[in-house]
């Protein structure tokens, strides 16, 4: 009988607790379930968009290989407008920038590279665009713009290339001492066996003893 009484007291206590906190528990549980479902739905949505963007990018590559400019413009435009938050949009713009540069269309190349700098979601792709943009601007003697493109610190993998490009721009401005410092910085970031080390060393040696 004592056991039955204890059991009844526990049951009454549970009922009282559930009456007081049951609504809140149900609300929290429902919110957690909704959040989980929403998270899974969002991941599925992102995956499906990435797959669609990948398909568009492949189609763009094929159009460029066939020199079908109309199709290439269609695919790149759709990537920029509908899939700008995916990596493929920036990569597509890089392809177009290279094609424009090869045709000496520096205005289009600059516009495409600037778009990548502003919109790329991958830091490495953004840095590739900044390097190429600086090279295009250097080619047009837009020295201040080129230095501005190189201003922000890149990811480590591109630090030597950024320093070398900065040296090229400074040398074109006639600032030999500053160019030498930039080339030396580039060398400091490279192993002596690394590709490009000898070229940077030659650029530095060609400056002679500058102060």
From TrEMBL:
Phylogenetic classification of the source organism: Bacteria, Pseudomonadati, Pseudomonadota, Betaproteobacteria, Chitinivorax
Annotated protein name in UniProt: Ancillary SecYEG translocon subunit
Key word Transmembrane helix present: yes
Originating organism: Chitinivorax tropicus
Keyword Magnesium carried by entry: no
This protein's UniProt keywords: Cell membrane, Chaperone, Membrane, Transmembrane, Transmembrane helix
GO molecular function: protein-containing complex binding
One GO CC term, this protein: plasma membrane
Localization: Cell membrane
Signal sequence coordinates: none
Domain Ancillary SecYEG translocon subunit/Cell division coordinator CpoB TPR: residue ranges: 15-208
Family assignment from sequence similarity: Belongs to the YfgM family.
Residues passing through the membrane, by range: 20-39
Membrane topology note: Single-pass type II membrane protein
């Amino acid at each position: 009988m004592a056991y039955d009484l204890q059991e009844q007291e526990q049951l009454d206590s549970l009922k009282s607790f559930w009456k007081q906190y049951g609504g809140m528990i149900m609300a929290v549980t429902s919110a957690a379930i909704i959040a989980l479902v929403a998270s899974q739905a969002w991941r599925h949505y992102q995956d499906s968009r990435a797959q669609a963007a990948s398909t568009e990018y492949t189609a763009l590559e094929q159009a460029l290989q066939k020199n079908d400019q109309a199709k290439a413009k269609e695919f790149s435009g759709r990537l920029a407008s509908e899939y700008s938050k995916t990596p493929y949009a920036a990569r597509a713009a890089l392809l177009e920038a290279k094609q424009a540069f090869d045709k000496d269309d520096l205005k289009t190349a600059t516009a495409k590279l600037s778009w990548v700098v502003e919109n790329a979601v991958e830091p490495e792709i953004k840095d590739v665009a900044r390097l190429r943009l600086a090279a295009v601007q250097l080619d047009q003697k837009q020295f201040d713009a080129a230095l501005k493109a190189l201003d922000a610190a890149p990811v480590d993998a591109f630090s030597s290339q950024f320093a070398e490009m900065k040296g090229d721009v400074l040398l074109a401005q006639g600032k030999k001492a500053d160019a030498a410092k930039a080339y030396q910085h580039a060398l400091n970031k490279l192993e002596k066996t690394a590709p490009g080390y000898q070229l940077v060393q030659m650029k530095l040696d060609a400056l002679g003893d500058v102060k």
